[in-house]
Amino acid sequence: MKNMGNMMKQMQKMQKQMAEAQEKLKEKTVEATVGGGMVTVIASGDKRILEVKVSEDVVDPDDIEMLQDLIVAATNEALKQVDELVEQDMGKFTKGLNIPGMF
């Protein structure tokens, strides 16, 4: 029974550390640039798009599709980087555990 109590304390401690790590992720940002610097997307560690920068050179009224494609590509790259950041920061809590739905 004592082991169960210790395990519960460890789980509560890990839960608190995970919550703190998730809060810190909100403060971190990633930046993805595509098209040789034509479009840049900045996202937070909690997958919010904070900023989209578009170079004037890429704004062509006759080719809106290219601009749209670049924005989608930069956004997807930024979100991929956030996933990697989350795995790096939160993965240490789930290493060796096989818990469905966890990072």
Please report which band the strand proportion falls in: under 5%, 5-15%, 15-25%, 25-35%, 35-45% or over 45%: 15-25%
Q: Helix share of residues? A: 55-70%
Order of helices and strands: HEEEH
What oligomeric arrangement do these chains adopt?
A: single chain
Average of the residue pLDDT scores: 88
Question: What does this entry look like structurally?
Answer:
This protein is α+β, with helices and mostly antiparallel strands and 103 residues long. Helix content is 55%, strand content 17%. The protein is built from 2 helices and 3 strands; from the N terminus they run αβββα. It has a 3-stranded antiparallel beta sheet. β2 and β3 (49-54) form a beta hairpin. α1 packs antiparallel against α2. It is rod-shaped and about 70 Å long.
Brief write-up:
The chain has 103 residues and is an alpha+beta fold.
Annotate the secondary structure layout:
Blueprint: H1 2-27, E1 29-34, E2 39-44, E3 49-54, H2 64-94
Antiparallel strand pairs: 1-2, 2-3
Helix pairs in contact: 1-2
